[in-house]
Amino acid sequence: MAGRETADREKAGRGEAGQGGAAAGGLIAGARRLPRQALRVLILGYRYTLSSIMGRQCRYLPTCSEYAEEAVMRHGALAGGVMATARICRCHPWGGHGYDPVPRCLPADARWFRPWRYGVWRMPGAPEGEG
């Protein structure tokens, strides 16, 4: 009987039984979401402070801050952040305009060690000489 109690305590210590394993999994998932939530707070802070001062004159739909928030929440901090940066770089008087949604999936040639591949740096369909 004592051997069984010892085995149960060892399992609980390793997180195999009870809520110990679930709590550790929740902490890891929370830590993974932390960078994207931090970026989201910055985006929302911009949207409700600086954006209202500068004026809401985005050339695209959805607006750049909506695009950035959706890209970060859908694709994560690295890929979404690069996509948002590329979009902001396209949003200028000589850039494109119109409907430009966040891609549903990441580009096939993009990898974590080549983050510039996540962004669309020119409006699709623009001639090579422009943009």
Automatic annotation (TrEMBL):
InterPro entries per UniProt: Membr_insert_effic_factor_YidD
Primary location group: membrane
PANTHER family hit by this protein: MEMBRANE PROTEIN INSERTION EFFICIENCY FACTOR-RELATED
Listed Basic and acidic residues bias regions: 1-14
Membrane topology: Peripheral membrane protein
Superkingdom of source: Bacteria
Protein's name in the database: Putative membrane protein insertion efficiency factor
One Gene Ontology term, aspect cellular component: plasma membrane
Keywords: Cell membrane, Membrane
Species in which this protein is naturally found: Xanthobacter dioxanivorans
Disordered: annotated span: 1-22
Function comment: Could be involved in insertion of integral membrane proteins into the membrane.
Subcellular localization: Cell membrane
Stated family: Belongs to the UPF0161 family.
